[in-house]
Amino acid sequence: MAEVTLKVQGMSCNHCVQSIERNVGAIAGVDQVKVSLADGKVDVVYDEAKVSRAQIEAVIDDQGYTVV
């Protein structure tokens, strides 16, 4: 398992948190997702054999947020 902390811009409320946690958590190979609204960060634990960091970032980008 790999763990990454992504800096994400554009999150402003609990709906943002729930949206990212739900959509990233639905990706096959993602084990855990924890969003920190105050810090603008998303912590993800995932299986590198099943999903790449780029795929996770793409799902966040597709929701209208920016991974920096």
From TrEMBL:
Keywords assigned: Chaperone, Copper, Cytoplasm, Metal-binding
CDD domains referenced in this protein's UniProt entry, alphabetically: HMA
Residue ranges crossing the lipid bilayer per the database entry: none
Coiled-coil ranges per UniProt: none
InterPro entries per record: CopZ, Cu-bd, Heavy-metal-associated_CS, HMA_Cu_ion-bd, HMA_dom, HMA_dom_sf
One Pfam family here: HMA
Keyword match Cytoplasm: yes
SUPFAM superfamilies for the chain: HMA, heavy metal-associated domain
Stored PANTHER family: P-TYPE CATION-TRANSPORTING ATPASE
Protein name in the entry: Copper chaperone CopZ
Gene name, Swiss-Prot/TrEMBL: copZ
